[in-house]
Amino acid sequence: MYVFTPKDPLLLSKTLRAHSHIHGLGLDDNLEARQSGQGMVGQIKARRAAGVMLKMIQDGNKNAGRAILMAGAPGTGKTAIAMGMAQSLGADVPFTMLAASEIFSLEMGKTEALTQAFRRSIGVRIKEESEIIEGEVVEIQIDRSTTGLGQKSGKLTLKTTEMETIYDLGVKMIEALNKEKVMAGDVIMIDKASGRISKLGRSFTRARDYDAMGSDTKFVQCPDGELQKRKEVVHTVSLHEMDVINSRSQGFLALFSGDTGEIKSEVREQINQKVGEWREEGKAEIVPGVLFIDEVHVLDIECFSFLNRALEDPLAPVVIMASNRGISKIRGTNYKSPHGLPVDLLDRLLIISTTAYSEQEIKQILTIRCEEEDVQMTEDAKDILTRIGMETSLRYAIHLITVSSFVAKKRKAIMVDVPDIKRVYSLFLDEKRSVQMLKEYQGQYMYNEVDTADREPAIGNGHGMQ
Ligand SMILES: Nc1ncnc2c1ncn2[C@@H]1O[C@H](COP(=O)(O)OP(=O)(O)OP(=O)(O)O)[C@@H](O)[C@H]1O
Ligand SMILES: [Mg+2]
């Protein structure tokens, strides 16, 4: 399970390489989808629908508990759209992405894993008043005992435009000042309760003395008024984080190791009660976020009935699911159902369907991917790759970009050209050709038990729903 913060480097690199070219949904102010924007191409209807959901989430989101299913053939951009949504959410709206199969591999019960995913996706925005000291540093004076042993002590002089005060410094504060590399002329903020020091910038009055400072130096006004102030700070934590911190057997360290184990239901009840009280007192607000369950058809009947219930909880996030199945078996039963989901769950969902791309759209997506991967490709090569994308799959064509650029580099060419594409097309099979090969040579493989009736059809593969 992975929880995103929008500026998370992981969001842009490692885990999501396949979608690293996507930076949002590419909508204009009226929520209309641009043909191409923020890395997204086509799939206009689905993007617009996702945009409406996004708007609802951002606007006070009284509609928590809504659930959407994105249904469409493989490679039609379901996961990509969810990634686009994640990137357009505000900084403190939680987005949790869960590949349904993870539920079965965690060291905890399935419903516990789902509960945790739900609670990770609900933020609590807490307002706190804290006492701070804010001022410009006039002087820092640190006394070391001559032996070099013993406690350090010192004095810090801070001023505002109206007053100046000298504070005694203890060892901890000296360390904190050193760590932040605070110097005379810096404007700093000290949180009185935690002793945390943050540098706000350099005072404008010092702008001229420090020509030599880097151009990234931020200049700020010297604060006015009292040095000590009360300031309202707002921070958002998820219900799950609160559960973990308050679960005596875990402690907050578990948050870092990710090894949270199962959490007792009493702990959750306590947290819900506390949050309820804070809401009444106006100290906290609930921020329903988004839980994205990819490949949802992999869940089984127990998980589905859990989802039915969980979606009705007053503290439910917006749940987005994706399935590429047509009419197929519901896991854990012998029944078949559309998208591999039970009908009573489907009844609670709004369905967004994604459709196949046109040739032009495939070309556009491939062009964007080439830019993303820093691959230069001739127009002819792009045309061939587009044809391959149309006839096999978009994903396969995207994969060929990387390998063909490798092949081009081998022959010391700057641009990928038609022969490179041909070469990798013959080296690496797509699904259809691989199946073809299997049929031709099946006798030579081990455990050959082909029973085509058993195969779960994906949408658009000819067997499924269209
Ligand atoms: N509209 C689009 N614009 C830009 N890139 C896209 C678009 N649709 C898909 N892609 C890219 O194509 C690849 C396949 O799409 P994606 O993974 O979203 O398919 P999917 O619908 O989730 O398929 P599956 O059902 O197999 O999971 C990804 O690299 C994705 O980023
Ligand atoms: Mg997907």
UniProtKB/TrEMBL annotation:
Pfam families: TIP49, TIP49_C. This is RuvB-like helicase. The keyword DNA repair applies. Signal peptide: none annotated. SMART domains: AAA. The keyword Plastid does not apply. It comes from Modicella reniformis. Residues 64-366 form the AAA+ ATPase domain. It catalyses: ATP + H2O = ADP + phosphate + H(+). Belongs to the RuvB family. Its EC number is 3.6.4.12. DNA helicase participates in several chromatin remodeling complexes, including the SWR1 and the INO80 complexes. GO terms for molecular function: ATP binding; DNA helicase activity; hydrolase activity. Keywords: Activator, ATP-binding, Chromatin regulator, DNA damage, DNA repair, Helicase, Hydrolase, Nucleotide-binding, Nucleus, Transcription, Transcription regulation. GO terms for cellular component: Ino80 complex; Swr1 complex. GO terms for biological process: chromatin organization; DNA repair. Its main location: nucleus.
